[in-house]
């Protein structure tokens, strides 16, 4: 039973643009929602001024986006809602509004007091979990260390076993081309940063392989050889997912005390307010949130 946390007036404006017949019901609390066909229940924070242009960077909207998420987390932690599904977030607007977070994932970790989470992208053909996300490539390589890699593999193993895969097949990417080719490329990052974590997880009896060359690993995962790929940095994991299925891609934050899913695309300011946005990824993300909601433990590793 979905409801919106946002701005009821803005939602009505969007409805007029796409000729929606939905009635927007402004409420203050989930208990006031009608949950009826043809009605969009909206917890109305009333933060967007009337007439604010579509598709333009705005600190007002950045602040509003933060407050929407903060209210969602508050309600989820109180047990008033069962899951959170987020729309795309413009990070520049968020920063302009005074909230210096790289994105939703880091904001959610802060708001829930969770020290470490992982970003997982899921499509019908491929699942990817990331060791690092919204930091520069040089910083990502510096941040990667055996403990972080092992904890990320553990989160991947845990979320898949709780989702019903008895023995997940986990492939771990290298950092360098050809996974370093035994020291030929790079400075031994695979041997010092990744291999100890893989051995530790194999020692738990898990089916973990790596570090493997990322290009062939993603090909093999796409044909079904692995249940999930552990990517070392943002673009290593995001690129293949978007090629294989951005329309049906879902972003899941693994390790939070609340369920959170999201679309796997950005804000597309160039088409904002035109009615041209593709809703398919959001529909899949909502469906995924609904499926995970009765299994809250699936998002939180032991």
What does this structure look like?
With 302 residues, this protein is of the alpha/beta class. It is built from 10 helices and 11 strands. The strands form 2 sheets. Strands 4-11-10-5-6-9-7-8 form an 8-stranded mixed sheet. The protein has a 3-stranded parallel sheet with strand order 1-3-2. α2 crosses α4 and α6 crosses α7. It is elongated and about 60 Å long. The relative contact order is 0.15. The C terminus is likely disordered.
Question: Can you lay out the helices and strands and say which pair or pack?
Answer:
Layout: E1 4-6, H1 8-17, E2 23-27, E3 39-44, H2 59-77, E4 84-86, H3 91-96, H4 104-112, E5 118-122, E6 127-130, H5 137-143, H6 146-162, E7 169-173, H7 189-203, E8 207-212, H8 214-222, E9 228-231, H9 234-245, E10 250-254, E11 260-263, H10 280-292
Parallel strand pairs: 1-3, 2-3, 4-11, 6-9, 7-8, 7-9
Antiparallel strand pairs: 5-6, 5-10, 10-11
Helix pairs in contact: 2-4, 6-7
């Amino acid at each position: 039973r979905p409801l919106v946390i946002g701005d009821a007036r803005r939602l009505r404006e969007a409805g007029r643009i796409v000729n929606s017949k939905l009635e927007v019901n402004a409420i203050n609390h989930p208990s006031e929602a009608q949950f009826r066909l043809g009605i969009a229940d909206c917890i109305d924070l009333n933060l967007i001024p009337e007439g604010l242009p579509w598709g333009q960077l705005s600190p007002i909207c950045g602040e509003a986006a933060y407050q929407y998420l903060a209210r969602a987390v508050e309600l989820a932690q109180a047990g008033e809602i069962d899951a959170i599904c987020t729309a795309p977030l413009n990070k520049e607007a968020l920063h302009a509004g005074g909230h210096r977070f790289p994105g939703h994932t880091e904001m959610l970790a802060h708001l829930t007091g969770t020290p470490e989470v992982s970003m997982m992208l899921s499509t019908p053909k491929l699942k990817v979990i990331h060791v690092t996300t919204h930091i520069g490539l040089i910083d990502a390589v510096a941040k990667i260390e055996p403990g972080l890699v092992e904890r990320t593999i553990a989160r991947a193993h845990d979320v898949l076993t709780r989702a019903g895969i008895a023995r997940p097949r986990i492939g771990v990417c290298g950092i360098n081309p050809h996974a370093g080719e035994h020291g030929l490329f790079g400075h031994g990052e695979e041997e010092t940063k990744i291999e100890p974590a893989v051995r530790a997880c194999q020692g738990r009896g898990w089916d973990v392989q790596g570090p493997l060359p990322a290009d062939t690993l993603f090909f093999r995962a796409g044909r079904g050889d692995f249940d999930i790929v552990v990517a070392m940095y943002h673009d290593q994991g995001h690129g293949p997912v978007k090629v294989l299925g951005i329309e049906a891609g879902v972003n899941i934050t693994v390790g939070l005390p609340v369920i959170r899913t999201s679309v796997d695309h950005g804000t597309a300011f160039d088409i904002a307010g035109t009615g041209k946005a593709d809703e398919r990824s959001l529909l899949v993300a909502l469906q995924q949130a609904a499926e995970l909601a009765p299994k809250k433990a699936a998002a939180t590793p032991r």
